[in-house]
Specification:
The protein is an all-alpha fold. It is built from 7 helices and no strands. Helix 2 runs antiparallel to helix 3, helix 3 runs parallel beside helix 5 and helix 3 crosses helix 6. The radius of gyration is 18 Å and the shape is globular. The protein starts with 17 loop residues before the first helix and ends with a helix.
Length: 229
């Protein structure tokens, strides 16, 4: 997805492409129907761990998710403010912000790659739905990154993001952590996913196509419910 998303020129239309809105709707459905219940399960996993982390109750997993949300939101705001000052800020400062922004998404992909190998429910159907949902999610986020960083995205970012994803998977093959630590990683990533769903997949300025968004959300919700995920 990272390597070929820049070739999907039909997604760049305004109003927003139907396919982009459909992908956004499916990603939102995955968050509400799968990610939120998984957070609750992660909280129980952490609480049952021995030894239990200091003062870490079942609901505190949502604080980890909030930390992930806040971390990625802070990076995004930094990138937005830099782009608003683009005409007056020195080029080297803009380059620094680009690398910070790109580094946060590389870290995001590293977590996704790792969790691709270490699913809390490692059945093949759960793996396939995670892969499909993240693929759609990447289409939307890559489109936004390409709009913001343009040539730098095609020349550097898409390659680095692809490598980060593969590196996360490789680390997953080599290093296995306990269930409680895995649950914390998932909670942190979930906060980032929720932010990107809100930030990129519910756009106002690009006049999102509601019906395509709704069809994507309803369709993927139906699939998740019918398969019991």
């Amino acid at each position: 997805m990272h390597l070929y998303a820049n070739r999907l020129t039909a997604l760049s239309s305004v109003p927003r492409s139907r396919w982009l809105s459909f992908a956004g709707g499916a990603s939102v459905a995955y968050v509400f129907v799968h990610v939120f219940p998984e957070l609750s399960r992660s909280g129980r996993t952490i609480q049952q761990a021995e030894p239990i982390p200091l003062a870490f109750s079942e609901r505190h997993v949502y604080l980890v998710a909030l930390a992930g949300f806040t971390f990625f939101y802070g990076i995004e705001r930094l990138a937005q403010q830099s782009s608003h000052r683009n005409r007056t800020v020195a080029p080297q400062v803009n380059t620094k912000i680009f690398w910070i922004h790109l580094g946060s998404f590389a870290f995001y992909n590293l977590l996704i790659g790792y969790l691709l190998i270490h699913q809390q429910e490692p059945e093949i159907d759960n793996l396939l739905f995670f892969t499909f949902a993240m693929g759609l999610h990447f289409v939307v986020t890559d489109f936004a990154l390409q709009e913001r960083h343009q040539k730098e995205y095609n020349r550097i970012a898409r390659w680095l993001l692809s490598v980060a994803l593969l590196l996360g998977a490789m680390v997953g093959y080599l290093i296995e952590i306990d269930e409680a630590a895995l649950a914390v990683l998932f909670a942190f990533l979930a906060g980032g996913i929720v932010l990107n769903v809100i930030k990129e997949e519910l756009p106002e300025e690009s006049d999102s196509r509601f019906w395509a968004f709704a069809v994507g959300g309803v369709s993927y919700t139906a699939v998740l419910l019918l398969t019991g995920l």
